[in-house]
Amino acid sequence: MSRNTHTNIGSGSRTVRTFEFGRTHVVRPRGKHQATIVWLHGLGDNGSSSSQLLESLPLANIKWICPTAPTRPVTLLGGFPCTAWFDVGELSEDGSNDWEALDASAAHIANLLSTEPADVKVGIGGFSMGAAMALYSATCYALGRYGNGNPYPINLRAIVGLSGWLPGARSLRNKIQSSHDAGRRAASLPILICHGISDDVVLYRHGEKSAQSLSSAGFRHVTFKSYDGLGHYTVPAEMDEICNWLTPKLGLEGFRP
Fold first, then answer.
1. Strands (E), 67-216
2. Residue 21: CA count within 13 A, CB half-sphere
3. Which residues are catalytic?
4. Rounded (5°) CA angle 140-128-202
5. Given a cut of 70, is residue 169 above it in pLDDT?
6. pTM of whole model > 0.90?
7. Using CA atoms, how far apart are residues 71 and 118, in angstroms rounded to an integer?
């Protein structure tokens, strides 16, 4: 486990915001190390909870890195402080976006993946706000840069988003289609989005709309799975779907259903 601090410094008269990330938990691969995935928790949760969920999956060749978001005041909660990858006023793509914190968290995630061996495939997944963060990272990869213009350094190979939404959905298509390289990268990245039809926290339509926005922007390998009766939580059938989807996408060996 480790504790990391990331500082994002504004320019001119802008206020300097410092983002201190919590503990990072790692689930080591039980077999040959073929892939590493950063898994991102939801609002108010932590990396320890994620690691406990992931260590039980039958994916012996994946190393899971489970960071903990900074503790910050959250507008949705009336300014109450809790762990959050970025500030949010509503859990949907319709809300205003905290671009500075989105970029700071995306950079922290990329940094966690930057030291992985060259022959190991890397990806990002998450639940709820963590899923939003994973999908935002996917757009940074495709565009080749963060929202602030700094270059995005990681070659992502898979994205998983459970019960989440896509920040920046409204402007994504124009940004992707204005660059040949962005379109090529978007077309090559497989994305799995899962959402419960009965989700009353991040409504099902936001997950569905996120998948549609990615597809229309040029992400050609978006898989959208819906689950009848599922609220804002995960179930074994959903985790099985992740296992079955990741195995061929990452070319994993030794999968046992």
1. 71-74, 80-83, 121-127, 156-162, 191-196
2. 29
3. 128, 199, 232
4. 115
5. yes
6. yes
7. 33
Residues 6 or more apart from 165 whose CB is under 8 A from it? 91, 92, 93, 131, 132, 135, 202, 206, 207, 209, 210
- Quick check: 107 and 92 in contact, CB under 8 A? no
Q: Greater confidence, 19 or 46?
A: 46
**Model pLDDT, residue 138:** 98
Q: Report in angstroms the alpha-carbon separations of 4 from 24, 37, 147.
A: 8, 18, 22
- For residue 145, the cross-strand partners are 151
Q: Residues with Cβ < 8 Å from 223, sequence gap 6 or more?
A: 190, 191, 192, 193, 245
- Look up residue 91 and give its DSSP letter: S
User: What is the token pair recorded at 200?
Assistant: 């009353």
Name the residue among 207, 237, 235 with its Cα closest to residue 223: 207
Q: Taking the CA of residue 70 as centre, how many other CA atoms within 13 Å lie in the half-sphere pointing to its CB?
A: 23
Query: Is there a contact between 167 and 97 (Cβ–Cβ < 8 Å)?
Result: yes
Question: What does the pLDDT look like over 224-254, one tens digit per residue?
Answer: 999 999 999 999 999 999 999 999 999 997 5
The pLDDT tens digits of the residues spanning 56-80 come to 999 999 999 999 999 999 999 999 9
**Residue 62 to residue 9: CA distance in whole angstroms:** 34
Average pLDDT value over all residues in the chain: 91
